[in-house]
ATP-binding cassette, subfamily B (Actinopolyspora xinjiangensis), 582 residues
Amino acid sequence: MRTPSPTRSVLRPHLRAAAWPLVALGVLQTLSVAGTLYLPHLNARIIDEGVTRGDLDTVWRLGSVMAVLAVLQLLIAGTATALGAYISVRIARDLRAALFQHVMRLGTADVRGFTPASLITRCGNDVVQVQMLVLTMCTTVLTVPITMIGAVVMGLREEPRLTWLMAVAVPALVLVVLGFAWLALPKYRRMQPQIDRVNAVLREQLTGLRDVRAANREDHEQRRFEQVNSALIDTSLSVGRLYLSFGPIVALLMNLGAVAVVWFGGHQAAAGEIGVGSVLAFISYLLMLMSAVLMASTVVMLLPRARVSSQRIAEVLHTPPESTTVAGGTPWRDPELGIEVRGATVRHPGAEQPALREVELRVRPGERLAVVGSTGSGKTTLLQAISRQISIDSGQISLDGTDLESADLVDLRRRVVLVPQRPYLFSGTIRSALSYGKPDADEERLWQALRWARAERIVTDLPAGLDSPVAPGGTNFSGGQRQRLCLARALVADADYYLLDDVTSALDATTEAEVARGLARATADAGVVQVTQRIASVAEADRILVLDRGTVVGEGNHDDLLGTCSTYREFVESQSLEETTA
Ligand SMILES: Nc1ncnc2c1ncn2[C@@H]1O[C@H](COP(=O)(O)OP(=O)(O)OP(=O)(O)O)[C@@H](O)[C@H]1O
């Protein structure tokens, strides 16, 4: 079975949506080309029937017709160009929107797999490549064949004995174009991944700028950037050099064609066999024919590059979204059942060992479960799995008796709120940042959440209060302030379950204790799974789950675990040691 071309599959829905503008464009282009083809013929008649015979009336009459026709042709061609640009911009806009919408629905693992840098290139540069192709197609798809046929027919009408020149000039030009394509296409293919690499390096360097400076590695990073950048520049330059040689060769061929017409046609004109106007018209038709071949070659050049870009866009669009049950999944069964994890095993893509092995846990409404374990023991992975940021490889996770795989994802995310280890604050104001997950939250709710998260002072200390600006990522706040604001944002959502991933790690012990008290009040009716490294937070929990290398090695309350779980004892002892040292 033939697989549809990626360009076609990516463009089809958008071309269909632009059907009427495309029809209008076709009509305008046909009229414009017809005008272009008729003008040299009129010119020939003015010269041969008017100028040569000294018939001024004919010169005036045909001259006026030619002037009106030329203006009309210009207007129509201008409108067609504008319409073509409009269609290509509109298609690019819709394609980018569709791509962005799809990326938003991709699973976390898929986003990691593509890499954010590549996704940015795909939404940006790759869409631009497709847009360029559409724009070129808009100006050539009808113009080229009509011009080619029209130029040959009109050339034959003017002087059939010169048409052999067309039969020589056009294949020569086609050969040059094919040679150029053969040299240029591999370079174009190399370019997109090179743009990806530049973006990836740049993104990493800008994200880790502080660490680069702290480690004095500016020179190293500069070299790393220069390496990927110069690879891209080299490719771009070699394409540019090819174009440099292509232009003069094509111009030479076209001029040789014109000279040949003058040479052979001139002899016939001198012998009185044809008019000078016909020779001039034939030159115009030959040049039109060659220009049409060039226009077609532009499409031939753009097509493979746009194909590579379409392929990259199609890869994203064809990646299934996170869930087939984004809305309208299986209803929740029994609110008393809460969160249940049964035999959950998770292996991250590319990882040798599973991050979670056969994990079992249960959290009911109003219950608080603390999760402790050494670094890398799978705590974050567990919370990601419960909130369905990642899928589990085996076992089952359910909420209120409904398997998360078949649950309504939007409703799940409304009911179960994850506060990650390094949450992100979006730019805007504190008000917009706090109500990010619940845009209809009233002001009282925002203040209440701020009080619970002990973040009220952060806001009242600012002159503009809730309307104070937040920089992208919340970088105008300290780590501890950011953590509390993010916690407040989660509490605004008023969820049924909270998954808290070490959310007080940047706070001092006193503030942490205050936050813990606020949290306890805020989430009194909710179920809470709290990953923590602090013994103080563990003490507040109803139960404690101890993870070691992805496996549950203990579960119970503090006293039970002290007696039964050596990993937990080590955790407690390390904390006591820290406190003593402090
Ligand atoms: N995206 C990933 N790809 C591959 N392996 C991963 C990925 N994320 C985590 N891991 C691995 O899974 C294991 C568990 O990681 P996880 O982040 O869940 O640990 P953690 O207990 O939360 O650690 P920490 O306390 O340091 O935050 C680790 O061995 C880690 O290297």
User: Anything to note?
Assistant: Residues 28 and 79 are 8 Å apart (CA to CA). The domain at 339-347+354-581 is CATH 3.40.50.300 (Rossmann fold).
